[in-house]
Structure formats: structure tokens, C-alpha cells
Amino acid sequence: MTEVNKWMIDPDDAVMLLIDHQSGLFQLVRDIEFPVLRSNVVALAKVAHLAKIPTITTASVPDGPNGPLIPEIHQYNPDAVYIPRTGQVNAWDNPPWVEAIEETGRRTLLIAGTLTSACMAFPALSAVAAGYKVFCIIDASGNWSQMATDLTLARVTQAGAMPIDTFGVLGEIMHTWNRPDAMDFAAVMVGLMPHYQALMESYDKAQSVQRDGHETRLDKFEAGANGEMLLAR
């Protein structure tokens, strides 16, 4: 039996909590570029669905200025469960939210929320106090200033939560390339980091050269007297 590493994510014990990723609140974010934040949140939704990790979402007054949840979360994770609130700022203060988490029987929480100072931090602090193992996904939790994020990061870390980035979550959940759905995880990586697509394209070309031979047949040319490349006879 493999010993559990208390500092890392056990996908079989994890619950993904995506809190208040709402169109209105995203407009307040200043510590991360909007497209990057949105891409990170979508990647979390995708990988949670791929790894069959229970996912629970919620929104803060979605019929007010905070706006609705971005639709991609439930689009790419149709198994995610939405828990409405009755005005609570801290999602943990909403009994149905905590009950939904408890019903999973899992004790590791992967938390991302906008804004970081409240929507992510408050449930994270409450969950730590309740005895859960908590990972705070910082780059999927936009905030109104970098200073506010730095203070919040220090606060949740001192309380016992572990900060992590989206790619770190993806890697720990994937765990190994030796799995039948490895390329599905790679597709999520491409969506998360477009530069990774260039890496995969280079790899695919190298494989095709080994399989089919070179496309550019340099052996068909020879150097002329002045160094000019001439077609060999």
C-alpha cells in the first residue's frame, strides 16, 4: 500500500471547489490578466471532470452586479454540482455547501475563488479549522490588487492551507504519463499553456521523421564551385 504524502494531492480524496468565478467579479481583478485567469479556471473544471473529482460550484448574488458564473465551468464539467447561496459572503457559512462537501466523504479540498481575499480565503480558513486538508489555487483566484493577494497568501498559509498553481494541480492529479487518458490531460495542458502546443508539434514532427523519413531531401543536392546548392544528377 502506497503511503499518503500529506503535502501532495491524492486525487481519490479530493474535491474541487470553484467559488464565485463570476463575470462581474472578474472585472475587478487586477493581479492577473483576465484571459489567463479564465483559462486557468476552465482548465481546473476540465481536469476535475477528466479525473472524476467531485466538483462543487457556487456564486455570490449572481442576479446582482457580481454577475453569473462563467458558463465554461459547467460546460466542460457537466457533473459539477451548483449550490446556491442565500447571501453569505463565506460559502462555508451556507449549510448546503458544507453538506455537499461532507457527502463526498473526501477530506482534501482544492479551492479557487474570485476574489481571492474573500471568496477563496474565507472558505479555505473555515475548512482548515474544520480539519480538512486544503490547497488554495492562487492563479485561479483573481484579486483586486497584488498587495491584497500577497496578504491573503500569507494569511491562508499561516493558517495551514497550501498554496498551489493550476499547472501544479494538473500535474499532481495526472500523476503519470503512463495512463490511457494521458493525451486528454495533455490537451488540457495545451489549453492552459498555448506554448505547450508548440512543444507537442515539434515532438510530432520528430516522430514523423523517424517514421516516414525526412521531408527535406538534402541528399539530393550538392555544393557548386561557388557554394551554391545544385540539384545532384
Structural description of this entry:
This protein has 233 residues and is α/β, with parallel strands linked by helices. It has one domain: 3-Layer(aba) Sandwich (Rossmann fold). 44% of the residues lie in helices and 14% in strands. The protein is built from 9 helices and 8 strands. The chain has helices at 23-26, 34-50, 72-76, 95-104, 116-129, 146-159, 166-174, 182-192, 194-212, and strands at residues 14-19, 55-58, 81-82, 108-113, 133-137, 162-164, 221-223, 229-231. The strands form 2 sheets. A 6-stranded parallel beta sheet has the order 3-2-1-4-5-6, with helices on both faces. The longest helix has 19 residues, at 194-212. The protein starts with 13 loop residues before the first strand and ends with a strand.
Biggest sheet details: 6 strands, parallel
Molecular shape: globular
| Proportion of residues in extended strands | 5-15%
How many DSSP helices? 9
Spatial separation of the terminal alpha carbons: 67 Å
- Say how many strands there are: 8
Q: CATH homologous superfamily?
A: Isochorismatase-like
Range of helix content: 40-55%
* CATH class category label: Alpha Beta
Show unreliable segments.
Answer: none
What is the element string, with H for helices and E for strands?
EHHEHEHEHEHEHHHEE
For the biggest β-sheet, the strand order reads: 3-2-1-4-5-6
SS content category: alpha/beta
Radius of gyration: 23 Å
- Overall mean pLDDT stands at 91
Question: How many structural domains can be distinguished in the coordinates?
Answer: 1
Q: What is the fold named in CATH at topology level? A: Rossmann fold
Write the CATH architecture name.
Answer: 3-Layer(aba) Sandwich
